[in-house]
Amino acid sequence: MKTDLQIAQQTPLAPIRDIAAEMGLRDSELELFGPHKAKVRLEALGRLQQRPQGKYIIVTAITPTPLGEGKTVTTIGLSEALCRLGKKAVTCIRQPSLGPVFGIKGGGTGGGRAQVLPMEDINLHLTGDTHAVLTANNLLAAFIDNHLFHGNELGLDPMRITWRRVAEVSDRALRYVALSPSGTTDEYERETAFDITAASEVMAILALASDLADMRARFGRIIAGWTGERKPVTADMLRAAGAMTVLMRHAVKPNLLQTTENTPCFVHAGPFANIAHGNSSIIADRMALRLGEYVVTEAGFGADCGAEKFFDIKCRVSGLRPNAVVLVASVRALKMHSGRIRVSPGRPLDPGLLREDLDALAAGCANLDKQIENVRLFGVPVVVAINRFDTDTDAEIALLGERAKAAGADDAVCSRVWAQGGAGGEELAEAVCRACDRPADFRFLYDLDAPIKRKIETIATTIYGADGVDYNSTATAAIDLYEANGLGTLPICMAKTHLSLSHNPKLKGRPEGFRMPVRDVRLSAGAGFVYPVCGRINTMPGLPSSPAGERVDIDENGLAVGLF
Which overall architecture, per CATH, does domain 129-248 show? Predict the structure, then answer.
């Protein structure tokens, strides 16, 4: 059996100019990065505004397992399938982070016959957007410490600096660092930490900005820290926002690529969904919706993470409303959610996943029930995509489909896009088209005018199923500070584990009887959200005992090997 990388490298690619022309883009609107990659200039958005807007489809999932549920594969394969049905479909996904690529998860370009290409370019540097984010973020950090060194005219309290540096690799040694403004050890040292680049507010702004001017304004509103009088010090006050924008002026343009079936795909921005808002850029979505009849985009991790943030953060900013939701599930993942079967990355699969076990599946379907319930809270039709494996039995597929419909799904359809590409997703595509034609009654989960704690508690009790929320003194003090400075009306971007509906990754299925601990509440004023940190969640991941990067190399022809 060929690996994903072998399939990707052996797939003939069409010139990206041809892909763009078929969509309706002009050659003058492209900035080429070789024959198969291009950035699209933002001027195209203005020209396309008179075109009708396509249907907007978001792909989410049950609570993830270490096996992966095939969400990105389904996103890409569904788009390919829609094109096979004669629809003009465009895919929009995030750019993968090098942290997971060289860590435990691997790349983020799909798999099998449903991939975005060139796979190795996307998983590594692509057009340099992530490096621009990293540099802009760290430039502001340098400006902060330089300001302290040269007299601290703004009265920035070193103990209240909130802006962190970032790195684009998983490096647990950077979770705690001590800094000296002068660069010597004989001066005052302050404590700080590094985050992964995907968690940077600069990355969040890239995904939420509407154009270059909006990006500049958002950079200016970034709060780097606070004075002793508890007043904010912004990037504009530090005179850093302009230079940050210059560094990001090309990154704001979406990247156009293609799938294994030569259908168009935008790859733009890459915020994580467990520690950020987990969605690709608004600019790419808006452009795609004017170029295609159907746009298939993906929200990170389960419906409790990326999808909730898609609805409550991204849709508020963009003004766009989804027509349908696809929720990806698999038999083997739901068996694991029964709590009877353990899965460990890098170890052989538990035999219980490979044989029929209707009891374990039925128990694990509690997670499916809850995630369908979560989607329906927002008033959008939902189709369950059953990512079918060869070991799944007909009885298991039937049970999963019955449970999905009983929980409120509009349909439940098998998908085999990993093995068959678009051909394996045609039934799913037909079901999604039907769902898009149904009336939707989209609504947000909470009112922005509600106090910060009430918004947090609404998400925790309604989406996660918690009995309530517990705040430590740090979190409470932060909330009081933000509300005192007129920042209490921002939406909420919860930072929690993606491996459970709760804060505890060990609690599978549909946990009950737990309270959500909030140990800190951070602020992303430029991006425009408040960022509670729940339980033990690291914004700088660590590498596993056997990192994926150990297997990455080049062959005798200089081609990448070992990526997945």
Answer: 2-Layer Sandwich (3.30)
Could you tell me if 147 and 238 are in contact, meaning their C-beta atoms sit under 8 angstroms apart? yes
What CATH architecture is 452-534? Roll (3.10)
pLDDT in tens, 322-357: 999 999 999 999 999 998 888 776 677 788 788 999
Q: Where in the chain is the domain with CATH 3.30.1510.10?
A: 129-248
- Percent of the chain scored above 90 by pLDDT? 85
DSSP string, 311-361: IIIIHHHH----SEEEEEE-HHHHHHTTTSS---TTSPPPGGGTS--HHHH
> In the predicted model, is pLDDT for residue 271 greater than 90?
yes
Please tell me the class of the 4-128+251-436 domain.
alpha beta
Residues of the chain with CATH 3.40.50.300: 4-128+251-436
Whole-number Cα distances in Å, 69 to 256, 357, 432, 510: 25, 18, 19, 17
Residues 6+ apart with CB under 8 A from 402: none
| Spatial contact of 262 and 236, defined as CB atoms under 8 Å apart | no
Q: Are the C-beta atoms of residues 188 and 182 closer than 8 Å to each other?
A: no
Q: What is the pTM of this model?
A: 0.96
| Parallel/antiparallel/unpaired status of strands 55-61 and 294-298 | parallel
- Give CA–CA dist 214/202, Å, rounded: 13
